[in-house]
Amino acid sequence: MVDIFIEHGLLLTMKGEGVGPIEDGAVAIEDGRIVEVGKTHRLKQRYRGAEWVLDARGKAVLPGLVDAHIHTSLSLLRGEAQDVPEIEWMLKTLAPFMKYFTREHRIAGAALGVLEAIKAGTTCIGEVGSDLEEITRRIYLPSGVRACIAPLINEIGPDSRPDPYKPYIFYPELGEERLKEALSLVERLNGAGEGRITCMLAPHAADMMSRELLLRVREEAERLGLMMHMHVAQGEREAIQIKLRYGTSTIKFLDSIGYLDDRLLAVHCHHASEEEIALLASRGVHYVSCPSSIALIDGVTPPLALYLSLGGKAAAIGSDQACGNNCHNLLMEMKIAALLNKTRHRDPTLLPAWKILRIATIEGAKALGLSNEIGSIEEGKRADIIILDLRKPHMTPILHKPVRNIAPNIVYSARGDEVETVIIDGRIVMRDRRILTLDEEEVMTKAQKAAEEITEAAAEDFMAAGSHLAKAVKKGLL
Ligand SMILES: [Zn+2]
């Protein structure tokens, strides 16, 4: 007997080159895996006795969305760092808050980030952060989310960056400690939750650690057969540091130390030339683009369409962090990714709806190295599936010819609250918009309290740092 049988849905399976639609489709799920996909009338008899039968009439059934780059803990700082020059964002708006974060704060933030993401259809996150062992045990595992976690490794201490125009001061003993912690986390958690938790190593960025430590991380990744999740060419601040230290650009430097191949998942890359993006693409480097985050922080459209047009084969999108985005909503991120890339290249044919939907599902899964297990609705894959209720004014009408309008309507009109049911690894995590694995009220109350503690402690430092945002606050503009 199967556990879950979804019937009469408008399936977008992502099988093949496009969205792989099946009208009046059905999916049978057993022991966490998809056992059969097809027309409802063909499957219905066979799976009559399913424990759960979900009627998806008038609803879209999709693979769960993949948010490939996220810092869930920072959701506590939603709306506290934006509308400032890039050079100020990390050093004058984010940094004053960061030193007051405790482990408990990070956990409260992670719970909020995951809650928000699942409610908008995300089933798999590519998390980069600190305290991930505790966060995974207390939040990711019980919440049911699929997480590819990458513990941050850098050599940055609280006093490392007094002047962005001078080389940062590195603390090798901190780097050593973080690498050690990361390796023990991998040992304990890679494959946890029956495979729902996977690991990468995360060298933070080329400007935040020495060449020696970068090489050590690479060596360990090779030894363990892991990918590396890394911020690459993420703006002027980093470019200044790399130039000071190595006299070149980030991507050329990374190339010189043997970093560019399919073991690397490079994030952002908006401070790179076309030639450098071509190099990433030709070396098989995987890429995550975070269009809203980079538009807000840098005023730049990151090179998603460019990477693809130059032959890049594994692209994903990510929501990054809530202080500069400001939300973990992949449905909105899809639209923003499409619009920004169309305007960047003045070409409305770029990143059509069907393509961006693939990037948020099957291709995103590939970027995280998980496409054998998730990303499409196909027999044998783990059952990460979302059901969207299309019976909404902004999703009406549903048409099947001449154009099947479901994919464009999901990409350009959906806002998150259409997501009615979320299934991850064959487990129903959200039903009728109610999360079954987390206490929503408790998560929000704890997040509110944690955020108040941090912002109260940091308020003076934040104002003293004198960012554009602090000046706007002083003038009473917001
Ligand atoms: Zn990031």
Question: Would you kindly provide a brief summary of this structure?
Answer:
By secondary structure, this protein is of the alpha/beta class. 40% of the residues lie in helices and 20% in strands.
Structure description:
The chain is of the alpha/beta class. It has 2 domains: 4-63 and 376-434, Roll (Urease, subunit C, domain 1), CATH 2.30.40.10; 65-367, Metal-dependent hydrolases (TIM Barrel), CATH 3.20.20. 40% of the residues lie in helices and 20% in strands. It has 17 helices and 18 strands. The strands form 3 sheets. Strands 1, 2, 3, 4, 5, 15, 16, 17 and 18 form a 9-stranded mixed β-sheet that branches. Strands 6, 7, 8, 9 and 10 form a 5-stranded parallel β-sheet that branches. A 4-stranded parallel β-sheet has the order 11-12-13-14. β1 (4-12) and β2 (21-30) form a beta hairpin. The longest helix is centred in the C-terminal third of the chain and has 26 residues, at 440-465. It is globular. The N and C termini lie far apart (57 Å). 55% of the residues are buried. Zinc ion (ZN) is lined by residues 69, 71, 128, 231, 267, 320.
